[in-house]
Give the backbone structure.
Amino acid sequence: MQGILDRDARQIRAKVIPNVKRETLQNEILANVKYGSAVYTDDAVGYNELRERFVHDVVNHSEAYVKGRVHTNGLENFWSLLKRTLRGTYVAVEPFHLERYVDEQVFRFNNRATKDNPLNDSDRFAFAMSQVAGKRLTYAELTGKDTDSLHTSTTGTGQTTQA
């Protein structure tokens, strides 16, 4: 997984990525961060070449977690919240669905109540419902199965299907 936190907007983008190779990590940053922006990362080698396009500074966690404005603490907070949710609330998360759990946590993080944005549960619910109106998620899509077994012509008729 990779996450990008916009400190000024107090918004996060996170997604499941196929690997942590330099090309994959940097392509995500290039697709989501404006050229010339200040980018703060840990000292992972995948971020080594960011200086070519960004004002890039690094914090080495084996030495310190903060160097003035250079830190990844806001993003670490997000990962901590995600891990607590996965371990405590959902417990058995299938890798097939991991992107959905990450998306939910991004929504919660980006729509949390703050001093500047006093959202309550009702506001968040209304906003979430406005985003799903007119969209459909079928059982087959949700489970990753080829057929939608809950919506066959024999469901609820007392008839059985023979193979």
Observations:
- Strands lie at 2-6, 11-15, 38-42, 55-59, 66-67, 70-71.
- The chain has a mean pLDDT of 88.
- The helical segments are 22-32, 73-90, 98-110, 121-132, 139-143.
- The chain has one domain: 2-132.
